[in-house]
């Protein structure tokens, strides 16, 4: 742990069966030790690598998975190559038993976000969080499997519950406001679809990335063992290190926003496309509009309720009409 980093706050005594939906939607990271000690997958992992391997294969659908494989030079870091023309790994499609045996010539391998209902169709019958099953029925559930890998700091839009099944993982988290201090790479060309920090957390270069020293003062760190869990709030930056020869993590992603609401990332990209090329004075004017209409309260009390449109509560039908109007204009 870096000297300036703080431990993630702990919520002890909370299990998969007892945690509430409100607690799962915490706006601060929470370490949940002993969250799922009796899950069969966790029990298998505690018996050793052969047992958890057998358990995984017993639930596997047989459909090939995609793994990122890299040589020893990568040191397990899932990242770009030296000149940023591509990545430092190669995708490999193979069956799980082949990947668990370690792909030939690969010092490091990493299976990211394998959708549980597709690749492990009976897994959720034995590993479940009732509060999510009841109130976040559309939660996306994934398994992450590999050896000693490092995933660069990134932020996800949904709320995230990460449960370690096998091995040990270290998470380093930063609040959303540390964006400018983390030196985030390109939005549209990243190793796994999320913009990532370009700082190597194993050896931060504070000459090239001087503001990272400020980010480190806001860092929170936690190391999880099998059965432990971590709540990662929406848009919190998190760097993930798998520390054991075989690591398995299960995570749940969910959002409380209406299904018809577009992603804020789409709004961000459209705003960048529309506003970035404007002169400074016009940018300042639009900043005021965003502060008022998006980040402020909108102050629509002086407008008759039936005329408020986007400034008032929308029904699903009205929201879809607005989306259709925008799409029609964008396609011109």
UniProtKB/TrEMBL annotation:
Q: Which superkingdom?
A: Bacteria
Location of the JmjC domain: 91-269
Cross-referenced Pfam families: Cupin_8
PANTHER family given for it? Answer: HYPOXIA-INDUCIBLE FACTOR 1 ALPHA INHIBITOR-RELATED, HYPOXIA-INDUCIBLE FACTOR 1-ALPHA INHIBITOR
The molecule here is called Cupin-like domain-containing protein
